[in-house]
């Protein structure tokens, strides 16, 4: 079984994914880190060298490879479900959970971490809100195709973990 976590940059996929894998005794895979190890380049370096399209091709190829595995918690990249037919492949091969965090919280979390995220690294703090608002508007359509959506207001990471475990009970995991 694979549990995949999807959602915008900063929604907590990596943090929550790690905790969830530990709780379930599953392997934890963060797709961004897996890509970085596989190509021996950081995500930012792949964007610089091959452009965003070059990153998306490598991301798709790596997604297909990782979905062959079993007993994995898979934290996807923020854009993974949005390109090609990725969301359909994700849903066909895993239980997908969308971590839906509201705009102000996302902006707050990303302000000091934007340098490692090439799509927002060039933005000034006062441009982040508008950029993310538009980006979410375009992407929500894909995120909402996840099997489950978890609305996260002010829950800390252990509360988020408990809510995911409730979902997984329904799935008999
Ligand atoms: N439930 C939470 N409440 C408050 N802060 C959180 C919560 N979950 C994660 N964070 C914080 O938000 C930031 C982003 O989290 P994380 O790196 O897990 O997001 P991500 O979805 O993996 O982002 P990316 O797509 O860019 O890799 C981190 O600083 C993390 O500590
Ligand atoms: O939202 C996105 O498109 C991205 C999110 C990150 O996880 C990385 O996959 C990369 O920075 C692109
Ligand atoms: Mg992450």
From TrEMBL:
<keyword id="KW-0963">Cytoplasm</keyword>
<dbReference type="GO" id="GO:0016301">
    <property type="term" value="F:kinase activity"/>
</dbReference>
<dbReference type="InterPro" id="IPR000623">
    <property type="entry name" value="Shikimate_kinase/TSH1"/>
</dbReference>
<feature type="binding site">
    <location>
        <position position="78"/>
    </location>
    <ligand>
        <name>substrate</name>
    </ligand>
</feature>
<protein>
    <recommendedName>
        <fullName>Shikimate kinase</fullName>
        <ecNumber>2.7.1.71</ecNumber>
    </recommendedName>
</protein>
<feature type="binding site">
    <location>
        <position position="117"/>
    </location>
    <ligand>
        <name>ATP</name>
    </ligand>
</feature>
<feature type="binding site">
    <location>
        <position position="14"/>
    </location>
    <ligand>
        <name>Mg(2+)</name>
    </ligand>
</feature>
<dbReference type="InterPro" id="IPR031322">
    <property type="entry name" value="Shikimate/glucono_kinase"/>
</dbReference>
<keyword id="KW-0547">Nucleotide-binding</keyword>
<keyword id="KW-0418">Kinase</keyword>
<comment type="subunit">
    <text>Monomer.</text>
</comment>
<feature type="binding site">
    <location>
        <begin position="10"/>
        <end position="15"/>
    </location>
    <ligand>
        <name>ATP</name>
    </ligand>
</feature>
<comment type="function">
    <text>Catalyzes the specific phosphorylation of the 3-hydroxyl group of shikimic acid using ATP as a cosubstrate.</text>
</comment>
<dbReference type="Pfam" id="PF01202">
    <property type="entry name" value="SKI"/>
</dbReference>
<feature type="binding site">
    <location>
        <position position="32"/>
    </location>
    <ligand>
        <name>substrate</name>
    </ligand>
</feature>
<keyword id="KW-0028">Amino-acid biosynthesis</keyword>
<keyword id="KW-0460">Magnesium</keyword>
<feature type="binding site">
    <location>
        <position position="56"/>
    </location>
    <ligand>
        <name>substrate</name>
    </ligand>
</feature>
<keyword id="KW-0067">ATP-binding</keyword>
<keyword id="KW-0808">Transferase</keyword>
<comment type="similarity">
    <text>Belongs to the shikimate kinase family.</text>
</comment>
<comment type="pathway">
    <text>Metabolic intermediate biosynthesis; chorismate biosynthesis; chorismate from D-erythrose 4-phosphate and phosphoenolpyruvate: step 5/7.</text>
</comment>
<dbReference type="InterPro" id="IPR027417">
    <property type="entry name" value="P-loop_NTPase"/>
</dbReference>
<feature type="binding site">
    <location>
        <position position="155"/>
    </location>
    <ligand>
        <name>ATP</name>
    </ligand>
</feature>
<keyword id="KW-0479">Metal-binding</keyword>
<keyword id="KW-0057">Aromatic amino acid biosynthesis</keyword>
<feature type="binding site">
    <location>
        <position position="139"/>
    </location>
    <ligand>
        <name>substrate</name>
    </ligand>
</feature>
